[in-house]
Q: What sequence folds into this?
C-alpha cells in the first residue's frame, strides 16, 4: 500500500513513489519453545522510497520498464506461530535484532492504459533485491530455539504486483 507520484525530471528519470511493504518468510516450526507442528512466520514492515529510471514505448497504451536504487526503513518485525488450526499467535517482537535501514535495487516492467480524461491505470511487476544484511543478531526466542548453528543474516528479495489508478496533471508548457 502506498502513494505514487511520477515526477519527470528528465527524459528517463522519475521519482516514482514511496510505499509501505510487508515482507517475510514462513518456515516449519522446529522450536522446542512451542507445541510441535505448524509454522513460524517472520513479518517485516518497511517504508520504501525508490529512485527509478524509466523508459516507455507506445502511443496510447504505454509499456514501460524501470530500474533503480531504493532505501527502506524498518517499522516493525514480529514472529508469529501458526499452528495447524490456522490461528496466529505472536511469539516475539524482534525489531531490535534487525538493521533499521535496508538498501537495494528495484527492477520492474508494466503497462499504463488511459481510462478517461486525465486518468490512467497501470499494472506493474517489480522485483526488490536487497543488498544489505538486515540482521543484527539473535533474539531471545531464537537463542532458546534452534537458530544457534546459523549465522544471523537475511537479505530482502520480494516480487510485487503493483496495480494503480493515477491522475495526470496537465503541464503548464
A:
Amino acid at each position: 500500500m502506498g502513494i505514487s507520484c511520477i515526477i519527470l525530471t528528465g527524459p528517463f528519470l522519475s521519482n516514482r513513489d514511496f510505499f509501505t511493504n510487508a515482507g517475510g518468510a514462513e518456515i516449519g516450526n522446529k522450536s522446542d519453545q512451542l507445541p510441535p507442528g505448524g509454522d513460524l512466520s517472520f513479518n517485516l514492515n518497511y517504508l520504501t522510497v525508490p529512485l527509478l529510471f524509466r523508459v516507455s514505448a507506445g502511443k496510447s497504451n504505454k509499456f514501460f520498464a524501470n530500474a533503480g536504487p531504493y532505501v527502506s526503513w524498518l517499522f516493525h518485525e514480529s514472529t508469529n506461530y501458526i499452528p495447524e488450526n490456522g490461528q496466529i499467535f505472536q511469539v516475539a517482537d524482534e525489531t531490535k535484532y534487525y538493521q533499521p535501514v535496508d538498501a537495494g535495487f528495484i527492477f520492474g516492467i508494466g503497462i499504463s492504459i488511459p481510462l478517461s480524461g486525465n486518468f490512467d491505470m497501470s499494472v506493474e511487476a517489480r522485483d526488490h533485491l536487497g543488498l544489505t544484511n538486515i540482521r543484527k543478531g539473535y533474539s531471545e526466542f531464537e537463542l532458546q530455539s534452534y537458530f544457534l548453528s546459523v549465522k544471523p543474516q537475511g537479505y530482502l528479495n520480494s516480487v510485487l504486483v503493483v496495480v494503480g489508478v493515477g491522475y495526470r496533471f496537465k503541464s503548464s508548457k
Q: What stands out?
A: The chain has one domain: 2-167. The chain has a mean pLDDT of 80.
